[in-house]
Protein ECERIFERUM 26-like (Buddleja alternifolia), 436 residues
Amino acid sequence: MVSSPMAEGLVYNIKLSSVGPGNATGSDLIFEPSCMDLAMKLHYLRGIYYFGSPAFEGLTTLAIKEPIFLWLNQIPIICGRFRRNESGRAYIKCNDCGVRFIEAKCDKTLDEWLDMKDATLEKLFIPNQFIGPELGFSPLVFIQITKFKCGGTAMGLSWAHVLGDAFSVAECMNILGRVVAGHEPGRPINLAHAQTKSKDSNGLPKVVEDPISIKRVGPVGDNWVNVTKCKMEASSFNVTPSQLSLLQSKLSLNGTEFAPFETLSALIWQCIAKIRGVESEPKVVTICKRGAPNKTHGILGNSQVVSVVKADFPIVEANLSKLAALVKHEALDEREKIEEAMEIDNALPDFIIYGANLTFVNLEEAKFYEFEYKGQKPVRVSFGIAGVGDEGAVLMLPGPKDGGKSGGGGRSVMAILPEKEIIELKIELEREGLMV
């Protein structure tokens, strides 16, 4: 299927197909997501890997798809479709329906595109698809290959967060890289272990009120989309190693050393507080970071730590080191409370986590730049989240690996905030010397 040009012709010649595993997984195999997985069902991870010309040069569509067949043999769960059991709880039927595969062309060169530095245009490289309203016909993963004029390729990925967190995404893509290189990808996920039964609750749940890290929405039924009160917009920028070192030195005057994530979180927290004003400044923020790997299902799962930080003092007037210390030392893990809040109604409630409070997501340890295609590593990786609530989210990733020219060794920051706050955030960051 070929669509008409979109977004003033920037991306065109769009072709849609599907790719499934090379081997059938068998009949009647199911995967039951955990309560934490289902708590993330209204969120979607959106990533783009930018490659120079050599990575995909001369490859036909079939040549690109062939390693994907083998890759999906390792993780057939992502090829399934959701169903509901008699109690209404959602599970994945591993029916090999496949992932959606999209090809497109871009009217810009790779360098021209990257120089535009417009995160809002990146949606052209990632399908804006959600699960529902018909669960049984909704793909969980979309892959889009967009070829730039004069060489270079963007590999976009839309991933239902219910499958696993950003660290799961990075590991899955790195497995694809090993398959492309002809290496042994490792043992596939044991689907026999993925067949689970709904657990009967032993006694009354501990949770009486919803934990403060989540927000109850909906009910959404089978249309897994979070609707916000205002339009959300994405904006990204790079923080160079020198900018980061200078900022860290300012915060460590009292002798306490702060990591890049803690430092940038404190600064952006205060910038957003200034934008929202004293009456609306965020006194509670959510912190998401890497947790212990999922031991049951290998690389897949939502094992990231979800914590909250509370401030009992004005954010706008606070010393940045005081905010950084809160992020470093005072984050309270709420994963158990979230799971209990889901289990109380057999995992049926509809929640959001990102944007329930202003949310800072630490993806510094995600191995995005270890993805290798035909011996080539991405020149840049962009990563965002769809389904963020009105309070917004800020993601922090490793910086581009280009020898420091635009932040190698530094950090990439993706802010997803109400549209009217994005411009004001840029102004605040310029005052701090970060938007240059």
